[in-house]
Structure formats: structure tokens, C-alpha cells
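At this stage, I put together a protein sequence along with its fold in C-alpha cell form, as given directly below:
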Amino acid sequence: MRRNIMKNKLITVVSGLLVLCTPMLVFANTKQPESTQDEAMVNQSGKVQSVEQLQQQANKASVQAKQEVDKSQAGTNQGLTNEKVSLPKQVKVYDPVSKKSKTYPTETLFSGKRIPGVIGKDTRTRVTNTKAFPYRATGIIIATFGKDTFTCSGSYIDKNTVLTAAHCLYHPETKKYAKNIIFVPAATAASRGGMVAPYGTAKGTSFSFAQGWKKGNLNYDYGVITTNKPLGKKSGSFGIRPANKLKGSTVTAVGYPGDKKTFTMWKESGKVISETSRIMKYHMDTTGGQSGGPIFQYNKKYGYYALGVISHGIPDKYNAGTKLASKAYNAVKSWAVKD
């Protein structure tokens, strides 16, 4: 039996499997026939909204709300709390490409041993101060699919909207939606095990992802979560921008990998080696648990802005992220500003 307990600011995951959504393993499913309906967004109840419908709702939002989604917001960095998450004995790594899972003992997976997603020498560096901006806008996602509990990564893109990967929200092969979602910005490992949540934890009250992901098409591996608390006001948030021509440019990927010490944040910067209209490929190392983490850049006008999310990869060849292409950007922005 599995249950999530929230009491006196303590979250405990009781026995069973922790499923780490993972960006790796076999050739990406990005060449399926596509339709205009793939751009539509599906919510946690299966209701579909077209990008145009979302934009109509978003048009009612204030100019300030729209501008805040484009530009990064540093937040107040105040109201620090301590909340703790314990680990189960086993973890189950889910691969969004092959649609298969493999179980590992927790002590093995989190011991620093290599798992697919590292290309050559591991060149990631740990974010030791998770309360530094913009890293504090990145967090860990904990949720359930049926009887399994899993973790992914995500980032605030406004005060209560989290950008992540669609495979963190829906499994095409089981047709199950994520439930009991919790987002913890700036999470870090506690000295005696478990996790410290500097800004507290927030529940996911609703979410939406691109309808193309229901077919398992990784071109549409992006989604958003609305949280019940505006923790993004404290942690800050990334801006988002349309991802157009990225080949040769430098980007940074950040998240919570499963092959490192439990609940530690890691980052790496590198060049985009190739791209399609919806996918960017790179040699930055990303492993299970980092899925959904932001891939971002910086400039003076917009600050730190996400161009896509960590999604998948081919062992020892490349890793890849799903880009916020023009319609993806519009859909994600519309979802964020409509609330």
C-alpha cells in the first residue's frame, strides 16, 4: 500500500516504488504523422482546449501578467520553511521513448553510479546554493501514477505555473494521468536524509499538456501545472520565449538527476548541436529525474528564460529537449496568464 502524508509540514512517501521520469534509451518517436489537433492542450480530466481557446481566455489577463511570463522574476526569496520527504526502498525509472520501466534499489540509483543519459565523462556540476536565482525557480515534482510514486523536475514560469515535460503528467501506454502532484522549488538534500523545502511545498491543482503527447510523440513532450500556492512569488520564476533557431547557441539544463545524491540539483551548459522545429539536441548530460527541468538562456531584456524542457535522448550519442516552438510557447503562455 502507498500513501502520501502531509502533516506538520512533513511529507512521507511510504514504501513501494518511486518512479523517476527519465530522458533516455531508444530512438525518439518524433516522426509520427501530425495534425493541428496535436497543438491543443489536454487537462487532467481529459478535456481538450485548442490553442485559440486558451488564447481567448488569456486575452482577458492584464498586460502586467503577460509581461511577467515573458521576463524572469527574481521573487522575494523570503518565507523560508523546512519540509522533509523520505525515500522508499526502490525506484522505478520510466523511459518516455520506449514506454518501459526498470526497477533499481534506491541505494544503488542514488549512489552516483552511471545510468544512461551520461555521454562520456559526466560534466554536470552541483547547484550547492539552490536558493540562488534563477535556480531557486527550479524544483522537484512528486506525484503518483496509479500505485507508483515518481519524481520529475520543473520550473516556475510565473507565481503559480510550473513548466515541465508531458511525460511527467501522462503515460500514453497506461493512459493514466498524474495525481497527488506536489512541487517543491529549490529543494535540497537534508543533512540526515530526506529533503529540505526552503520555500515550502505546493499542490498541483490542475495541469495541461500537448495533445500530441497522448500518442507518445516527443515533439509534444511539454506541459504545465497550476499550484495551489503562489510559491513563485518567493522563489521567483523563469521567463519563457519562443525557441526558434538554436543550433550553435549555448543553453543551460538544470534539474534533479536520479544518479546523484538524493534531492540534489545539478546543471550543465552546452551548445545545441542540431535541431528540428520542435526538438533540440545537445551533449549535456541528463539522467532520470531531470525530465521536465528547464533548458534556458539569459539576456538583459528578458533575464533568464526557458526555451524548452529536458525530454529524452540516445545513450552515448545525444540528449534532447522539447522546444517551446511558436505554438507551444503560445499555449504555455496562455495557460500561465489565464489564471
Remarks:
- The chain has one domain: 4-338.
- The chain has a mean pLDDT of 78.
- Helices lie at 51-58, 63-70, 106-109, 232-235, 326-338.
- The CA atoms of residues 61 and 339 lie 8 Å apart.
